[in-house]
Amino acid sequence: MGTRYGLAVCLVLGLLITITVGHSSGQQSSGAPASAPAPPATYKMTTPIPPGIATPNKVETSIGTLNLSDGYPAPETIEKIYDNLDRSRALQAYLLGIPMVNQASMRASLRKFGPDNQTDVIWENLVDSKTVELTANDNTVYSFIWLDTHKGPLVVEIPPKVLGLIDDFWYRWVADVGITGADKGRGGKYLVLPPGYKGKLPKGYHVVRPSTYGNWLAFRSFLVDGSPKPGVESVKKHLKIYQLADSAKPPAMKFVNASGMPSNFVAPGDYSFWNLLNEVIQEEPSEGSDPTTLGLFASIGMVKGKPFNPDARMKKILEDAANIGAVTARTIAFKIRGEDAYFYPNSAWRLPFFGGYKFEVSPGVANLDGAAFFYYFATGVTPAMAEKMVGEGSQYPWAAQDSQGNPFDGAKTYKLHLPPNIPVKDFWSVIVYDNQTRSMLQTDQRFPSVSSQTKGLLVNADGSVDVYFGPKAPPGKEKNWVQTIPGKGWFMILRLYGPLEPWFNKTWRPGAIELQP
């Protein structure tokens, strides 16, 4: 009898288990409506789950429908998610990589003129529009030199009366040289050390400690009575670069005049961008960057000491990211969203840089858009660019839209009115640049500019000046005119050399650039 009783109990328990399991797996009894979900099974440890933790089995998103099975992604969803993750990381890597790629491209361009440490590419007759170089000016004499400390400390003898800087391979400021540097414009010897250098330091040098082996030295010498010749002669007389070990017998410098020579100093934005970025990662110490940035680069296949060899899938993603990245950089540069990027409310006049030379929203917080814009449009990072220096230095207001907020059309004519008492101790200039290359617009004019130094410049009776832009000069305004090209977009920079207080307190401001009938 006990056996029969036990068997009956087992049968009853088995039936109850069957019913319970059927309900928990979504099975319905024949009398239950098909649309009524079965209540979830509960167990001794079951607790309510707060909203937002569980993911539905189907999620509609901007990258399509994502399917899961009780929280586990379906195979096609896994593939879609990783494609999207790699694309998003590649885009951010592109934007963060612009500074390093600019420097790698700069080095490649300079090496075409001669070896590192020995070659000064100098624009003896100023930069003209045959030089493709980010927003260069035609008012001063540029010198560009690539420094490399792989063989040990370098001595750099800086000429007097120049204004310059040293930026590392990650395009961060290392030191100023010349007028704003330790030599205060008197000229002097700088000792540039390799990363982590522990050797004994000799006396008599301004010591510079970059975090990279490769560094860019750039400086400007100035016109004397409108002539670049005295500044050029001073540079050739005083500039010397040599290994510290060769101090007793330094090698001769090579000076190459790049004025009027077709040359390119602008980095590519297509797939070749990634190869240049990888060069920097492979050559330079990881300590020169930060873990998050290096992690982004690593996530797309760039790791120091390992080959960069993306498979077909990843190469396609990187090609796409380069295309999107180039347009993203242009969008940020030409139509940035932040109000703090503008000099005046509801105005097209833009600041050339914001967030300081470190490009920060606040101390220790990166201004990502500010950095992307600057490195895409300009060269040379120094604290001096953000300082208020009344009567010294320079200011660079610029505009890419007319008074109605429309981009400039090379087929149309525009006018810029500069009110009387233009606030400069030295001089002012207006230079026009090509939207594509961000370099001087290549027209029939060697120098696409108008300045207070322009011979024959027309000045109005009240001291104001009107500058015209268009494919043809308005009759009688040839000296105040910059030529533009139908079908080609452009932007302009108003440079103020030795800016005075009315510029800084905004009691003087340039007019909007007006489309002419």
Number of helices: 8
User: Which stretches are poorly predicted, pLDDT < 50 over at least 5 residues?
Assistant: 1-33
Alpha carbon gyration radius: 32 Å
Please tell me what the overall shape is. globular
Number of DSSP strand runs: 26
Distance between the termini: 112 Å
Strand content: 15-25%
> What is the SS-derived class?
alpha+beta
Provide a short characterization of the protein structure.
This protein has helices spanning 2-24, 75-111, 229-238, 272-283, 291-299, 312-334, 368-377, 501-504; strands spanning 58-61, 64-69, 72-73, 119-122, 131-132, 141-148, 154-158, 163-168, 173-178, 188-192, 206-208, 214-221, 240-243, 254-257, 263-264, 360-362, 365-366, 394-395, 398-399, 414-418, 424-434, 449-451, 465-470, 481-483, 490-499, 514-515.
SSE map:
Elements: H1 2-24, E1 58-61, E2 64-69, E3 72-73, H2 75-111, E4 119-122, E5 131-132, E6 141-148, E7 154-158, E8 163-168, E9 173-178, E10 188-192, E11 206-208, E12 214-221, H3 229-238, E13 240-243, E14 254-257, E15 263-264, H4 272-283, H5 291-299, H6 312-334, E16 360-362, E17 365-366, H7 368-377, E18 394-395, E19 398-399, E20 414-418, E21 424-434, E22 449-451, E23 465-470, E24 481-483, E25 490-499, H8 501-504, E26 514-515
Parallel strand pairs: 4-14, 5-15, 10-11, 23-24
Antiparallel strand pairs: 1-2, 2-3, 4-6, 6-12, 7-10, 7-13, 8-9, 8-12, 16-17, 18-25, 19-25, 20-23, 20-26, 21-22, 21-25
Helix pairs in contact: 2-4, 2-5, 2-6, 2-7, 6-7
